[in-house]
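Colleagues,

For the teaching module next term, I've prepared a clean inverse folding example: a structure given as tokens, and then the sequence designed for it. I'd like students to try predicting residues themselves before seeing the answer, so please don't circulate the second half yet.
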């Protein structure tokens, strides 16, 4: 199904009204052959020299002189009988080199693409960081028997699909750091063929609507493949034991299933759409925002375009049927919505919508460069189509760019509104629901650029900057849990007490301690009875407000007794704890000698370690 510039399904070219041309008059686009250009230029110069030499020889030379000149010419130049061009040895070597490069350019492009994809793939498995809070929580939950796993998720606030996959993965490959992260890496690699297929579909739709060249499907497919392979976001979360790589993969599957169902309402295609929708909501609750956006668009199209009403309503019904599959989880979902939430999340400003693109693009200057490429490519993909060697711009947007822009932006705007008025979190890692549409739109824009060299140059810049940003993210230590656990193992004696304030520091350090083997310490967590391996998010804010550092200090001191030391894992600045952890430390210091063993560093999850000796 094709759609015209006003949003109407149609077939043929999107003519628009009064498209703006970026520069100069329109003229047909012709491919530039570097080798041919060099030969023609050489021919022009050689022909001029030959004419001058002929005139001089005709005036003065005898037959013998002509013979001598002919012999000299034979030694100094080579004649091209096909073009009438005289090519000197130096020019011949240059022309041959250019010809070889031109002939080898397709092979060079293939090699470059393979290297970029391979580099991005390796980075997904190359992080040396210890597991941080969310990863440690995920592994702790997924390692439990399935009934306990599902019960733990009620207190965690997440849907179960990724945890069940990880549960099966751990049963086969174990729960080591590399092993548990490898699942996300494999899922992230699985997005690459799906992204390539989605890119080709977008390019083909652009061509059918008159908004792309004949090779648009090949170029958009290639650009999308590179964008996903080299995406810092994809690399970052392809190396983390969380569900975000699965979200990105399922969004692509959902998009392809939706398009196929809208093309033809076959039972198999509708069933695939139902399964894809159910898989999304069983993976992350933010996917509801994407599903609502697509469903609203379908209903709008069904109302505005009666001729497509039947196929659109069938696709909508297939999406709605996923509610039947989600019904068994509905009691847990409602409990989570009422009691868990994201109490750690602050309010965000509207600029977060722009910041999200640069967050996807990675850190420092390379991220800024890739962010500019993404935004510029998205703008071209939304508004422009090729017109010879120029771009014809339509401010109201073109097909399919306007739909990709809506799928990219509307869910993020809804998430921002929920954060402002509903208290839910707006976190960069959640925004993977909108990443595929943004990368597809930017890839479409790159494919619209006039000239293969320009497109290739932009893709090189995007790929290199993405890989540099992804490498930095993959190699960065995310938590001090490993450092702190190593120090605890070195210091602690059997029976010593390890206290965590806040409780959110417990899972990562506890897991790192366990990885050292048999350590006989007793662990206690601030205002959380679930133990150090988990965090109970049920009514979290109210529970933290009721607790206080002074009471917890007395509890920790009594547990340690006079013969054992206290090791406090501490970090200030967490929401709803106010200064509780500082109060805890000061209260223990009035009873025992305090020494700082590990200073807090500026990491994603930094913390300090303080040792309080036996009672004075």
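(Answer key — instructors only)
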């Amino acid at each position: 199904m094709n759609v015209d510039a006003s949003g109407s399904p149609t077939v043929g070219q999107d003519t628009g009204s009064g498209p703006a041309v970026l520069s100069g008059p329109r003229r047909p686009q012709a491919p530039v052959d570097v080798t041919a250009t060099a030969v023609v230029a050489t021919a022009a110069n050689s022909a001029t020299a030959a004419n001058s030499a002929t005139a001089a020889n005709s005036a003065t030379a005898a037959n013998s002189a002509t013979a001598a000149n002919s012999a000299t010419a034979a030694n100094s130049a080579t004649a091209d009988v096909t073009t009438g061009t005289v090519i000197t040895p130096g020019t011949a070597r240059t022309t041959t080199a250019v010809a070889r490069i031109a002939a080898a350019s397709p092979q060079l492009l293939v090699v470059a693409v393979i290297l970029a994809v391979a580099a991005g793939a390796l980075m997904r498995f190359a992080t040396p960081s210890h597991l941080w809070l969310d990863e440690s929580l995920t592994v702790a939950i997924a390692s439990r028997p399935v009934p306990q796993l599902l019960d733990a998720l009620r207190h965690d606030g997440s849907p179960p699909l990724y945890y069940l996959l990880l549960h099966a993965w751990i049963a086969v490959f174990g729960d080591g750091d590399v092993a548990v992260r490898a699942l996300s890496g494999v899922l992230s690699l699985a997005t690459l063929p799906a992204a390539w297929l989605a890119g080709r579909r977008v390019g083909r739709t652009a061509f059918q609507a008159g908004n792309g060249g004949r090779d648009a499907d090949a170029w958009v497919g290639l650009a999308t493949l590179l964008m996903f392979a080299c995406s810092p976001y994809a690399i970052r979360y392809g190396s983390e034991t969380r569900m975000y790589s699965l979200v990105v993969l399922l969004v692509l599957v959902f998009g392809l299933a939706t398009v196929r169902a809208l093309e033809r309402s076959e039972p198999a295609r509708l069933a695939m759409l139902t399964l894809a929708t159910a898989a999304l909501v069983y993976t992350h609750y933010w996917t509801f925002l994407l599903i609502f956006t697509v469903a609203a668009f379908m209903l709008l199209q069904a109302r505005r375009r009666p001729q497509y009403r039947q196929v659109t309503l069938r696709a909508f019904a297939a999406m709605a049927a996923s509610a039947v599959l989600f019904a068994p989880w509905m009691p847990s979902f409602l409990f989570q919505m009422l009691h868990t939430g994201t109490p750690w999340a602050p309010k965000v400003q509207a600029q977060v919508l722009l910041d999200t693109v640069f967050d996807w693009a990675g850190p420092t200057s390379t991220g800024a460069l890739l962010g500019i490429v993404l935004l510029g490519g998205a703008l071209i993909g939304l508004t422009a189509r090729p017109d010879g060697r120029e771009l014809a711009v339509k401010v109201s947007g073109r097909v399919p760019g306007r739909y990709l822009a809506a799928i990219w932006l509307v869910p993020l705007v809804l998430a921002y509104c929920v954060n402002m008025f509903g208290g839910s979190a707006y976190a960069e890692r959640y925004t993977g629901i909108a990443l595929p549409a943004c990368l597809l739109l930017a890839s479409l824009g790159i494919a619209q650029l006039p000239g293969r060299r320009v497109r290739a140059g932009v893709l090189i810049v995007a790929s290199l900057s993405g890989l540099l940003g992804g490498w930095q993210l993959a190699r960065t230590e995310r938590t001090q849990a490993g450092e702190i656990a190593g120090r605890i193992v070195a210091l602690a004696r059997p029976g010593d007490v390890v206290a965590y304030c806040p409780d959110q520091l417990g899972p990562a350090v506890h897991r790192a301690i366990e990885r050292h083997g048999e350590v006989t310490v007793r662990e206690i967590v601030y205002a959380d009875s679930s133990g150090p391996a988990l965090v109970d998010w049920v009514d979290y804010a109210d529970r933290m407000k009721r607790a206080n550092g002074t009471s917890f200090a007395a509890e920790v001191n009594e547990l340690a007794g006079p013969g054992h030391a206290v090791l406090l894992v501490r970090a200030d600045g967490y929401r709803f704890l106010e200064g509780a952890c500082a109060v805890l430390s000061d209260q223990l210091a009035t009873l025992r000698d305090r020494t700082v063993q590990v200073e807090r560093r500026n990491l994603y999850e930094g913390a300090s370690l303080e040792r309080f000796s036996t009672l004075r």
